[in-house]
Amino acid sequence: MTERSDVLVIGGGVIGLACALALLEEGSSVRLVERDTLGSGASHGNLGMIMPSHALPLTRPGMMRDLLRWMWRSDSPVLVRPSLDPLFFAWGLRFARSCRREAMLGIMRGRQALLESSRDLYVELVGSEELDCEWEPCGLLEVFERAESMEATEPSHDLLEGIGVHAEVLDHDGLMNLEPALRDDVYGGRLHLRDARLRPEKLVAELGRVVRAKGAAVVEGTVVSGFDTRAGRVCAVMTDAGRFEAEHFVVAAGAWSAKLCRPLGLRLPVQPGKGYSITTSRPGPCPRRGVVFHEANMAVTPWESGYRMGGTMEFGGFDERLSRPRLEALRAGARRYLRAPFGEQTSEEWCGFRPMTPDELPILSRVPRYPNTVVATGHGMMGVSMAPATAKLVAEMVAGREPFLDVTPYSLARFGAKHYRARHGQAH
User: Fold this and answer.
1) How crowded is residue 142: how many other Cβ atoms within 10 Å of its Cβ?
2) Of the residues 2, 193, 395, 421, which has the fewest C-beta atoms closer than 10 A?
3) Residue closest to 49 by CA, chosen among 381, 312, 305
4) How far apart are the two ends of the chain, measured CA to CA in Å?
5) What is the block-wise mean pLDDT of the chain (428 residues), using blocks of 10 residues?
6) Are 358 and 95 in contact (CB under 8 A)?
7) Cβ-based neighbour number of residue 413 at 10 Å
């Protein structure tokens, strides 16, 4: 079987679906190929926070010291399992270099551009497409147990204020008046009014509904096995459902993008970072908005339809096993801050793989050897938060128009020419 479209999108998570929608609105015919079901990867079990407040990356001065301190704790916020994989070792070295202050400041500006733009684009998207995804622009609360913890974050808070990321500082009484679900022994917090929330699995279901209604061909349960390339262009992808031809291609396969792109001469520095979440019924009392618990390095999101705790980061390849200590760390963290930390009924315990780049910026770039192919991956923990702006940039790249944001921070060129040639596999 051979079928043709203007654009073929690989990946049916929030990034792939948002790209498909943006391309359809450009007037392109679109085919989307997903290895499993739509939204079954990292898009499914995340917290659904839309977070302009989180422009500051993990890559910051002092992070390497923290990683060494946490390395042997099974319940640590970030767990790095020792690996002999040379690609992971190279990724780690670049991550360490990104933790310098000058690098961090550049990364922060690149993240803010996508986060702020996406926040505004979500308002348009949810309204125009009437997405039933429990969108609520209710802000995000960052809570501290101890005075010294909050004071230690003041330099970071000042950096964010300097680039326009504002927060309202709350003392204990102000915090308790705003959020009665908190325990009385918390110290203080910050309210990020620009942040919002939605239910991510509902978002991807709604995006899937909309792209189908607009004419996209959605092919689920289909694995891409290779590319047909000729004269400096990708002509088709080969799958277990047949050959699909297109004029343009978008690789938005999340943590699996690196493997997919090797035959295209790319060695993408993307590693799977496993995150965890627990979904329960709404506790009573239930928080009124998303809450980040600083010392516990976790967060909770309430919706009308449920409640979710999430967090942690684990580097250890594509290990799909659930870690009981890491799940229990989420429950224990919620107990430290909330009067009723979770609901009585647990509907899901989940883990999934976030596509992590070593500098905490996504890759939004044409493939150097095959310019009719665009890579859109590496969003880490911010895929839902960055999806609309990512999709708009990808659609503009495919159309050959000037992008509405400077895409230099997200280019493959920042990793150097060696990443243009995969160690394993050559283009067909």
Assistant:
1) 23
2) 2
3) 381
4) 19
5) 86 98 97 96 94 92 78 72 81 91 94 98 97 97 97 94 94 97 97 97 98 97 96 95 96 96 94 96 97 96 97 88 92 97 97 96 96 97 97 97 96 78 40
6) yes
7) 12
Write out the two tokens for 264.
Answer: 């295209």
CA dihedral over 125, 128, 129, 134, signed as positive or negative: positive
Q: How many CB atoms lie within 10 A of CB 72?
A: 8
Whole-angstrom distance, CA of residue 130 vs CA of residue 126: 5
Q: Is residue 99 exposed (0-12), middle (13-18) or buried (19+ Cβ within 10 Å)?
A: buried
CATH 3.50.50.60 fits 2-420, yes or no: yes
Q: What is the pTM of this model?
A: 0.94
What number of residues does the chain have? 428
Nearby residues of 351 by Cβ (< 8 Å), 6 or more positions away: 45, 274, 275, 276, 277, 320, 321, 322, 323
- Quote the CA–CA distance of 206 and 170 in Å, as a whole number: 36
